[in-house]
Amino acid sequence: MAALKVGDSLPDDVVFSYIPYTEESSEITACGIPINYNASKEWADKKVVLFAVPGAFTPGCSVKHLPGYIQNLPALKAKGVDIVAVIAYNDAFVMSAWSKANGIKNDDILFLSDAGTAFSKKLGDWTLGERTARYALVIDHGKIIYAEKEPGREVTVSSAEAVLAKL
């Protein structure tokens, strides 16, 4: 399969592992049950900002990348974004705990597991071995309209501010 790029449609088989937020599972120590989140279906009629990080709880991801999306969530929504999601190679339990550790409630930002980097590999060379690379996509009604992978170790083209500038 050819690498996905701007102008391509999201494939029909994009599924992530996910633990939905509930009041009962709102504590960091509480666990939900992972489900398969069919992004192809859920995002077909929505505008989605998806950003990927190499790992939950890592310093760069927790200090430099995720906070920008949390702070800019209202601005992203004001630009017509229906869903903001973050993926990493970590399993759904770790992603859920990372969400809770950052005070995210009511699925304001979806924390999804790209186990085995299955989705990131569809983008081409957008992995760091067994981890997801740092990148951002904007998907509008199933079509990729923005796709940028970080050229180095900094958070530039995949930052919330960079994505906002392209919306």
From TrEMBL:
GO BP: cell redox homeostasis; cellular response to oxidative stress; hydrogen peroxide catabolic process
CDD domains per record: PRX5_like
Gene Ontology CC terms: mitochondrion; peroxisome
Domain (Thioredoxin) ranges: 4-167
SUPFAM superfamilies recorded: Thioredoxin-like
Catalytic residues of the enzyme: C61 (cysteine sulfenic acid (-soh) intermediate)
Top-level taxon of the source organism: Eukaryota
A GO molecular-function descriptor: thioredoxin peroxidase activity
Gene3D superfamilies reported for this sequence: Glutaredoxin
Keywords linked to the UniProt accession: Antioxidant, Oxidoreductase, Peroxidase, Redox-active center
Record-linked InterPro entries: PRX5-like, Redoxin, Thioredoxin-like_sf, Thioredoxin_domain
Function: Thiol-specific peroxidase that catalyzes the reduction of hydrogen peroxide and organic hydroperoxides to water and alcohols, respectively. Plays a role in cell protection against oxidative stress by detoxifying peroxides.
Family: Belongs to the peroxiredoxin family. Prx5 subfamily.
Designated name of the protein: Thioredoxin peroxidase
Organism: Hyaloscypha hepaticicola
Lineage: Eukaryota, Fungi, Dikarya, Ascomycota, Pezizomycotina
